[in-house]
Amino acid sequence: MTLYIHPPGSIGRTVFETDCRLFSQLADSEWAHDNIDKRLLIMLTTGLLNRSLNLEKYLIAALGQEWTFLHPVQVGQTLYCHYEVQLLKEQKKVYQIGIQLFAEQVKVADGRWTVMFKQLIH
């Protein structure tokens, strides 16, 4: 059962060069200037989801995630996240979040997270 579908394009986040530099320092890795690290894209997507699902308040655990990256993302592009939340196990409050990540108008990644929340969401 699909519980919530986020309206397309309503929350966006532009990727800045500073994001890439700070992430490369934290990850102790080199920043390839031709595209954005996929791990950084996952972190930015988490931030987008947090702004609408309030993950900080409700998330207990991320039980798993799968990603398929379709196109590279460049500095200066704005990311948008479309998602739907489906209840998998009501008693344990386990949900699956299907995610489509867009840069401008191009879908750049598909993701699927399995998460546990503190309470059922409506």
Summarize the structure in words.
- The protein is of the alpha+beta class and 122 residues long.
- It has one domain (2-117): Thiol Ester Dehydrase, Chain A, CATH 3.10.129.10.
- It is 25% helix and 43% strand.
- It is built from three helices and six strands; from the N terminus they run ββαααββββ.
- Strands 1, 2, 3, 4, 5 and 6 form a six-stranded antiparallel sheet that branches.
- A hairpin with a 4-residue loop joins β4 (78-89) and β5.
- The longest helix is centred in the middle third of the chain and has 16 residues, at 38-53.
- It is elongated and about 45 Å long.
- It starts with a strand and ends in a 5-residue tail after the last strand.
- The relative contact order is 0.25.
- The mean pLDDT is 87.
- InterPro entries: HotDog_dom_sf (IPR029069).
- It comes from Lysinibacillus odysseyi 34hs-1 = NBRC 100172.
Q: What's the layout of helices and strands?
A:
Elements: E1 2-5, E2 12-14, H1 17-26, H2 38-53, H3 55-58, E3 59-69, E4 78-89, E5 94-103, E6 106-117
Antiparallel strand pairs: 1-4, 2-4, 3-6, 4-5, 5-6
